[in-house]
Each structure stands twice: as structure tokens, then as C-alpha cells.
Design goal:
It is a single chain. The protein is mainly α. The protein is built from 3 helices and 3 strands; from the N terminus they run βααββα. The chain has one domain. A hairpin with a 5-residue loop joins strand 2 and strand 3. This is Putative DNA-binding transcriptional regulator AlpA. One of its GO terms (molecular function) is DNA binding.
């Protein structure tokens, strides 16, 4: 069975609507989605890891009333 392709960094940034600099700040604090660093230095993110990160963000966001 073929593995689902991992998302490129540009695809992740477009989906979460974030600038590269803001993303790298999150990553430095350990708050970004889990990324895979390829031997050529490029970053990839598995769909499951991005979805899990989104769910964690939603869970940790307070509900305003």
C-alpha cells in the first residue's frame, strides 16, 4: 500500500494561514505541528500530524461566552 504524501511546508503554511517567520517561531517553541526534515533540508508534515495539531489547538482554545 502506498503511503500518503507528506505536505510541503508551503502547503502547511497556506492551510494554517501563517507566515514562514511566525511558523518558525512556533517551531522554535515546540508548538508547531510535527515536521519531518528530509536529507536535502526540506520540511514535510504528515496529514495526520497536521490534523492532530489542529485538534490540539481547538481543544486548548478557551470558549468565550
Amino acid at each position: 500500500m502506498a503511503r500518503p504524501p507528506a505536505l510541503k511546508l508551503a502547503e502547511v503554511l497556506a492551510e494554517i494561514r501563517m507566515s514562514p517567520s511566525a511558523f518558525y517561531r512556533l517551531r522554535a517553541r515546540g508548538e508547531a505541528p510535527r515536521m519531518i526534515k528530509l536529507p536535502n533540508g526540506e520540511l514535510r508534515c504528515r496529514r495526520a500530524d497536521l490534523d492532530a495539531w489542529w485538534e490540539a489547538c481547538e481543544r486548548d482554545t478557551p470558549v468565550w461566552r
